[in-house]
């Protein structure tokens, strides 16, 4: 009955029990255990169930034992019952190796069938476009499979694992067909080998996955937002665990019940009288500029990805562009553009039954986001060009950051301490600032600032009467709950930060002029400076009353419980004060966390240093899980992990507090040493200065000065930055104030003095160059040719090919201008040369030594355009051998990471040429390829280094950004030369200068080998000789008993190791004998592979 060949008494009793309890046996007689040769078949594994289940169940055994001696039993049911409904994955396409050309062609063929754009038909056109894109994607792209009835492979599973399992299955099949002792031995050996291989594979990869888990936990603890794109792309809705009973309360927070306001905005009459270019239709160049920098993220409800749009052809893009322009004018915004799907994600370490424990993540349509990007570019340019945002606002503005606020505050505190003054500071929190923005008030402020009508029309229509939906699972069913939103700025929109800055533009104007104001988005800081704390409190109270009036007027409220008062004073006892807001006392604290930096009342920095140490202690545990001394990730990977996790924390804001607590800064040095020891696997006794050189990680004090230099040189591009005036004032006070007699100078003051030593004039402006340039210049599409049929070949052949290419392009009769720039050495000036080929006009210009060749190439293009305008040339080709300069000119200025003033000036000149109908083409040609015009321009550039014109002899801040790194390496080399005389002498003989990269970046070896070689280089290695010096062992004699157990003995004479191959390899490399191990360590790339082979072959650990 069970499948066995015999019957015993236990089997008879089991059958009687089944009959007594009315149970059924599902076994079909198939054996459930693999037996040895000559043994009887065995079915010891039984499956028992009630009769109502037995009729609908099928029973069978798997053909493979998966390395066990029992065959797995599989019981299946024809009826599948799923307790939960499952949604289609939001990111359902495999786009890694997608056929974008086929997708582009298919969309282009369908685009003509879409409905024609008419006023009032924007909703239908938007739906048709979305349907076209999704249907084309369904036809071209493969869909991700997410089968729920299969066990997924572990992440470390690869082709080697598949081969091992296939080999095991084959051995099982052979044994099942011929159950002989020989086949059984082969099967057992294969099973054992496969089991060991898979176990080692999982252990090797396990450390990496421990890192991922711990890193996720660490980021959650430190308040980092999870990658929602990854979360939703894997369809993990069931992991969000949002309690259904919190649904209404959660939606009430996002969309408070309120009556809709009637907002009327007459667009047509306004546009009639407005000739501003910002009210014109968007161009295809603007759209392509936006699409060039966006990356795929989780899509909205329509499922469209950014990459769908960025790979479209011009016909489809024009349809989308016309749709956007129609929406802008008519105000008929499709409902899908105004809808957001909200995902509730639980905050770390928060209770599950509290609605405040969940963070809303809003997902909008990509079509809406692109339109918002276009509007944002124009609105931001208008606001910044007219200087309409408060000067105290540094949040979400180009080239401004939290460090600006912190630098201004700490500098003011130091100035106050130098003058024996106190500062009363109020750190204020506006309650749900973005969610409570009143749309009517926002519209009024946009009109008050005379923002272009077209932009206001789109913004107000988009924000008024929005829709949000929340997906919840209740009783196994998926429910979508919708709400209408009448106030607030949409979460996740690129427009929201800019609109909030506009909403608060008049906040600073309504406050008492005796109070200093700093803003970063919705973080607000008031502080009053005075010798009398009472007077400072009175000024603060007066300003808070003004703030209360402004908040009420603008429909906002202050969260008193989240606001704090701190008195910054150098007195031993902090004065006790009482500051109230609207009748409520603000809590008085001795330290406060402001924009990620903990500031104490004495500005010693100790509180922040302790905060950083606690934060890094957890991150060090992550690194320890990744790598040990003899196992784990390669030092190259560990150095990247250190830079990302540890050094980023050590860097942020610490240079602003340097010069305070020496004890606190020493704690940071300890963190750095611990992390670098984990990276390299060296001993604890290793000298820290040598360890820093080994990892190419400078001392933290020097790095803090480097960060200060980099920040200040970047901020110097703004002529009206308040920090410069304050640093000048502090620099003058330091010489006379008693406060600084026994204190080291702040990093910012040292950086400021470096800035004052620059001899050349510096290009500065009140705002970024992009905002000082005409808008029409920024959206201009320059004609740039990268391939005119010329490549580097034989010089004579290249020149002939260039002439023929010019003839093929029909450029005969055009003016040719060749440009070039040159720099021979670091200390030399940059020479700029250009020649007008027809008129034989030449120019030679000299730029300061701090300038880069890139700046020289751009400057040459600028001078060429000035020559075109001067000569009134109708058709001109400007030849340049700098592809980087032409690519920077081609990029959309709004999406450039760095804003180059020269590029903006070039665009202004191009606009003048366009307005005067001058045709200008830029063409790239290879350098030093024998083209006569290019060779002449190169000759002029080299001559200009010595005798070029020095007007204008000016530095640009993007070039000065390279100076801090130069200063850092110079200072570090000096410190290393001095300190190595007392500590790290052995390492200084091997590495006398700071390398540009660590040696282990170039050598591929195991962690054991790199740890041993690093220890050998540092001179701290577990040999008997060194351990005896540290008094860890009593004798310095090697275990072989022949000689002192130092490195030379182990590698060249110890009888315990086989060194035949080692010595042969050294001889093949022409190493003179006798030699020492210290000589071999001088040349990493030449001898380290030989050392690695010897260490691995003899299994050395020391």
UniProtKB/TrEMBL annotation:
Domain Reverse transcriptase: 326-599
Molecular function GO terms recorded: nucleic acid binding; RNA-DNA hybrid ribonuclease activity
Gene Ontology BP, a term: DNA biosynthetic process
Pfam hit, one: RNase_H
Domain RNase H type-1: residue ranges: 811-946
Gene Ontology annotations for the cellular component aspect, listed alphabetically: DNA polymerase complex
InterPro entries: DNA/RNA_pol_sf, Endo/exonu/phosph_ase_sf, Endo/exonuclease/phosphatase, RdDP_mobile_element, RNaseH-like_sf, RNaseH_domain, RNaseH_sf, RT_dom
Classification via PANTHER family: ENDO/EXONUCLEASE/PHOSPHATASE DOMAIN-CONTAINING PROTEIN, ENDONUCLEASE_EXONUCLEASE_PHOSPHATASE DOMAIN-CONTAINING PROTEIN
Record's protein name: RNA-directed DNA polymerase from mobile element jockey
Lineage start: Eukaryota, Metazoa, Ecdysozoa, Arthropoda, Hexapoda
């Amino acid at each position: 009955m069970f499948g066995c060949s015999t019957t015993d008494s236990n089997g008879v009793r089991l059958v009687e029990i089944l009959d007594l309890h009315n149970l059924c046996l599902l076994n079909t007689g198939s054996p459930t255990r693999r037996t040895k040769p000559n043994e009887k078949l065995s079915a010891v594994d039984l499956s028992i169930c009630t009769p109502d289940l037995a009729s609908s169940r099928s029973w069978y055994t798997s053909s493979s034992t998966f390395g066990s001696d029992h065959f797995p039993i599989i019981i299946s049911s024809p009826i599948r019952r799923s307790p939960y409904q499952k949604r289609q994955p939001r990111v359902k396409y495999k786009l890694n190796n997608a056929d974008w050309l086929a997708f582009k062609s298919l969309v282009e063929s369908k685009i003509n069938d879409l409905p024609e754009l008419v006023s009032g038909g924007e909703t239908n056109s938007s739906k048709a476009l979305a349907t076209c894109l999704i249907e084309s994607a369904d036809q071209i792209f493969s869909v991700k499979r997410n089968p729920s009835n299969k066990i997924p492979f572990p992440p470390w599973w690869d082709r080697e694992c598949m081969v091992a399992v296939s080999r095991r299955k084959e051995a099982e099949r052979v044994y099942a067909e011929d159950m002989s002792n020989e086949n059984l031995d082969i099967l057992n050996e294969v099973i054992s080998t496969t089991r060991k291989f898979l176990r080692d594979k999982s252990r090797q990869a396990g450390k990496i996955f421990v890192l991922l888990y711990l890193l996720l936990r660490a980021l959650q603890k430190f308040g980092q937002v999870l990658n929602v794109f990854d979360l939703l792309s894997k369809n993990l809705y069931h992991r969000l665990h949002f309690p259904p009973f919190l649904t209404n309360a959660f939606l009430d927070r996002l969309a408070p019940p309120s009556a809709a306001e009637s907002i009327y905005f007459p667009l047509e009459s306004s546009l009639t009288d407005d000739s501003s270019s910002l009210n014109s239709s968007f161009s295809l160049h603007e759209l392509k500029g936006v699409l060039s920098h966006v990356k795929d993220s989780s899509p909205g409800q329509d499922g469209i990805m950014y990459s769908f749009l960025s790979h479209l052809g011009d016909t489809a893009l024009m349809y989308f562009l016309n749709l956007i322009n129609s929406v802008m004018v008519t105000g008929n915004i499709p409902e899908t553009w105004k809808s957001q799907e909200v995902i509730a994600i639980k905050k770390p370490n928060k209770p599950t039954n509290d609605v405040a424990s969940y963070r809303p993540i809003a997902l909008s349509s990509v079509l809406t986001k692109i339109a918002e990007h276009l509007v944002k570019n124009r609105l931001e340019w208008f606001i910044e060009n007219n200087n309409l945002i408060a000067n105290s606002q540094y949040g979400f503005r180009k080239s401004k950051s939290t460090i600006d606020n912190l630098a201004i505050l700490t500098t003011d505190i130091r100035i106050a301490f130098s003058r024996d003054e106190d500062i009363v500071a109020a750190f204020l929190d506006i309650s749900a600032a973005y969610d409570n923005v009143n749309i009517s008030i926002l519209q009024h402020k946009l009109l008050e600032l005379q923002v272009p009508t077209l932009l206001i029309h789109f913004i107000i229509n988009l924000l008024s009467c929005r829709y949000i939906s929340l997906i919840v699972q209740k009783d196994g069913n998926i429910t979508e709950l919708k709400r209408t939103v009448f106030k607030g700025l949409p979460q996740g929109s690129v427009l929201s930060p800019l609109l909030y800055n506009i909403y608060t533009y008049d906040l600073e104007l309504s406050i008492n002029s005796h109070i200093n104001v700093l803003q970063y988005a919705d973080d607000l800081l008031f502080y009053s400076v005075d010798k009398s704390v009472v007077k400072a409190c009175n000024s603060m109270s007066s300003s808070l009353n003004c703030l209360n009036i402004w908040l009420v007027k603008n429909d906002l409220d202050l969260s008193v419980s989240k606001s704090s008062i701190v008195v910054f004073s150098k007195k031993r006892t902090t004065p006790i004060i009482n500051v109230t807001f609207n009748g409520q006392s603000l809590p008085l604290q001795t330290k406060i966390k402001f924009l990620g930096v903990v500031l104490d009342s004495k500005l010693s920095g100790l509180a922040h240093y302790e905060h950083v140490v606690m934060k890094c202690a957890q991150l060090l545990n992550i690194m320890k899980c990744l790598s040990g001394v003899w196992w784990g990730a390669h030092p190259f990977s560990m150095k990247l992990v250190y830079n990302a996790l540890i050094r980023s924390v050590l860097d942020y804001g610490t240079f602003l507090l340097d010069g305070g607590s020496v004890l606190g800064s020493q704690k940071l040095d300890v963190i750095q040493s611990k992390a670098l020891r984990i990276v390299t696997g060296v001993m604890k006794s290793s000298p820290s200065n040598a360890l820093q050189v080994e990892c190419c990680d400078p001392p933290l004090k020097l790095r803090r000065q480097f960060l200060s230099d980099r920040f200040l040189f970047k901020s110097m591009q703004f002529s009206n930055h308040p920090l410069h005036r304050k640093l000048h004032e502090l620099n003058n006070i330091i010489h006379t104030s008693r406060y600084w007699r026994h204190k080291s100078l702040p990093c910012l003051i040292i950086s400021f003095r470096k800035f004052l030593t620059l001899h050349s004039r510096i290009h500065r402006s009140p705002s970024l160059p992009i905002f000082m340039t005409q808008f029409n210049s920024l959206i201009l599409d320059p004609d740039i040719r990268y391939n005119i049929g010329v490549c580097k070949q034989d010089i004579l052949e290249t020149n002939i090919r260039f002439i023929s290419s010019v003839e093929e392009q029909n450029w005969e009769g055009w003016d040719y201008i060749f440009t070039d720039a040159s720099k021979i050495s670091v200390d030399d000036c940059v020479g700029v040369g250009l020649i007008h080929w027809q008129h034989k006009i030449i120019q030679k210009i000299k730029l300061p030594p701090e300038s880069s060749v890139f700046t020289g190439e751009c400057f040459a293009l600028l001078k060429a355009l000035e020559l075109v305008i001067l000569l009134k040339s109708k058709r001109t080709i400007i030849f340049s051998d700098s592809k980087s300069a032409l690519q920077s000119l081609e990029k959309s200025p709004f999406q450039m990471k760095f804003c180059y003033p020269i590029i903006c000036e070039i665009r202004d000149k191009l606009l003048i040429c366009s307005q005067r109908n001058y045709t200008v083409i830029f063409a790239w040609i290879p350098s030093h390829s024998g083209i006569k015009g290019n060779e002449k321009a190169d000759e002029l550039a080299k001559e200009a280094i010595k005798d070029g014109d020095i007007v204008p002899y000016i530095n640009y801040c993007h070039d000065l950004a390279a100076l801090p790194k130069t200063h850092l390496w110079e200072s570090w080399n000096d410190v290393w030369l001095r300190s190595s005389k007392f500590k790290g002498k052995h390492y200084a003989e091997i590495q006398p200068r700071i390398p540009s990269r660590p040696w282990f970046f170039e050598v591929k070896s195991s962690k054991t080998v790199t740890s041993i070689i690093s220890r050998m280089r540092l001179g701290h290695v577990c040999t008997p000789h060194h351990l005896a010096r540290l008094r860890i062992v009593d004798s310095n004699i090697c275990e072989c008993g022949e000689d002192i157990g130092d490195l030379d003995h182990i590698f060249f004479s110890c009888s315990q190791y086989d060194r035949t191959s080692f010595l042969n390899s050294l001889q093949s490399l022409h190493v003179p004998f006798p030699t020492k191990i210290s000589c071999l360590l001088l040349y990493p790339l030449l001898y380290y592979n030989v050392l690695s082979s010897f260490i691995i072959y003899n299994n050395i650990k020391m």
